[in-house]
């Protein structure tokens, strides 16, 4: 077999594998109603958004305060720009800017209380629903109990909140800090900052998939779905922002509800991206399990079951091959086999 034939076969195998993964992902999404699960996740996410903001607002000021006035100003500017993408200018100036001034200038110790714990519990509802929907997309729905799922979601929410308190200011003020720290000959590394953030976010999504399942899978196998989710989220967010900028640029028919609807749509894009990534991982895991099983059979020397041909019928004396035995026997032979019947008197 020539080299061209080998390359052609490999390309055909890759195309077949890609088609099977795409087909399996679409079939999984349709089987488990991915749009309905995404709507459920987005609804609980927007309900958990105020407790999340409450928790971050009480703690992030302590971290940002250590970077100095310039870093605080950069973080404020980044957050205000993000808020302008979803809210009106009047809402940003009346609500967002005063809140950021009060929160980022100093920490808020008053939220570290029972109310803060209740806010954590309320905020973890979205993560609880997200974990539940991810397990459904993997086909593991109902494997983990309600209590275990709630405890897992609360624990992951607290850990994610603690990480976010440190990471969010670093992400927002990171390019400025990196530019000021690096020497002039290494300034080209600043352009790698956001790609590194994207890769780290993909690793975080893979960890979420890994921990959400009741049956652990290899962590590296979850990177495929995490990459799919990240690409879908970036592309979907860009399409959503472009569409809303053109349709809600002026006076909106939704009035004051325009901003909450935009946030809900954005959360819907986030959740549906995560669920499609979970469906891709489920299809990939099924393929890897089948391949592992096939390799194990080959290693054990097991062969595929052969089709057993029927045993050749015994040829009776006086019977031609292919002829039914009863058809070859004469009437006298048949009557000889019948026992004598008593004659009627």
Automatic annotation (TrEMBL):
<dbReference type="Pfam" id="PF03631">
    <property type="entry name" value="Virul_fac_BrkB"/>
</dbReference>
<feature type="region of interest" description="Disordered">
    <location>
        <begin position="296"/>
        <end position="345"/>
    </location>
</feature>
<keyword id="KW-0472">Membrane</keyword>
<keyword id="KW-1003">Cell membrane</keyword>
<dbReference type="GO" id="GO:0005886">
    <property type="term" value="C:plasma membrane"/>
</dbReference>
<feature type="compositionally biased region" description="Basic and acidic residues">
    <location>
        <begin position="296"/>
        <end position="309"/>
    </location>
</feature>
<feature type="transmembrane region" description="Helical">
    <location>
        <begin position="261"/>
        <end position="288"/>
    </location>
</feature>
<keyword id="KW-1133">Transmembrane helix</keyword>
<feature type="transmembrane region" description="Helical">
    <location>
        <begin position="223"/>
        <end position="241"/>
    </location>
</feature>
<feature type="transmembrane region" description="Helical">
    <location>
        <begin position="41"/>
        <end position="64"/>
    </location>
</feature>
<protein>
    <submittedName>
        <fullName>Membrane protein</fullName>
    </submittedName>
</protein>
<keyword id="KW-0812">Transmembrane</keyword>
<feature type="transmembrane region" description="Helical">
    <location>
        <begin position="111"/>
        <end position="131"/>
    </location>
</feature>
<dbReference type="InterPro" id="IPR017039">
    <property type="entry name" value="Virul_fac_BrkB"/>
</dbReference>
<feature type="transmembrane region" description="Helical">
    <location>
        <begin position="192"/>
        <end position="211"/>
    </location>
</feature>
<feature type="transmembrane region" description="Helical">
    <location>
        <begin position="151"/>
        <end position="172"/>
    </location>
</feature>
């Amino acid at each position: 077999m020539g080299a061209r034939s080998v390359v052609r076969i490999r390309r055909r195998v890759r195309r077949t594998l890609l088609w099977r993964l795409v087909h399996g992902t679409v079939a999984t999404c349709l089987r488990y109603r991915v749009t309905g699960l995404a709507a459920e996740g987005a609804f609980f996410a927007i309900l958990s958004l105020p407790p999340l903001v409450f928790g971050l607002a009480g703690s992030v000021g302590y971290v940002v305060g250590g970077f100095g006035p310039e870093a605080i100003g950069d973080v404020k500017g980044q957050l205000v720009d993000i808020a302008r993408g979803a809210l009106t200018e009047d809402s940003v100036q009346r609500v967002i800017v005063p809140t950021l001034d009060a929160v980022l200038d100093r920490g808020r110790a008053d939220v570290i209380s029972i109310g803060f714990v209740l806010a954590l519990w309320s905020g973890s509802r979205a993560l609880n629903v997200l974990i539940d929907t991810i397990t459904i997309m993997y086909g593991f729905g109902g494997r983990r109990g309600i209590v275990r799922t709630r405890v897992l979601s609360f624990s992951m929410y607290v850990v994610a909140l603690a990480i976010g308190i440190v990471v969010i200011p670093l992400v927002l003020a990171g390019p400025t800090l990196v530019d000021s720290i690096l020497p002039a000959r290494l300034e080209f590394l600043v352009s790698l900052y956001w790609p590194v953030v994207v890769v780290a976010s993909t690793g975080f999504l893979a960890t979420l998939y890994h921990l959400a399942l009741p049956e652990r899978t290899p962590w590296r196998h979850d990177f495929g779905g995490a990459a799919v989710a990240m690409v879908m989220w970036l592309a979907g967010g860009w399409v959503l922002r472009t569409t809303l900028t053109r349709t809600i640029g002026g006076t909106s028919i939704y009035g004051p509800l325009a901003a909450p609807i935009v946030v809900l749509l954005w959360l819907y894009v986030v959740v549906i991206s995560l669920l499609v990534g979970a469906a891709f991982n489920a299809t990939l895991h099924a393929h890897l399990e089948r391949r592992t099983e096939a390799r194990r059979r080959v290693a054990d020397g097991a062969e595929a079951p052969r089709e057993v041909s029927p045993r050749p019928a015994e040829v009776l004396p006086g019977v031609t091959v292919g002829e039914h035995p009863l058809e070859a026997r004469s009437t006298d032979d048949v009557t000889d086999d019948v026992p004598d019947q008593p004659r009627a008197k």
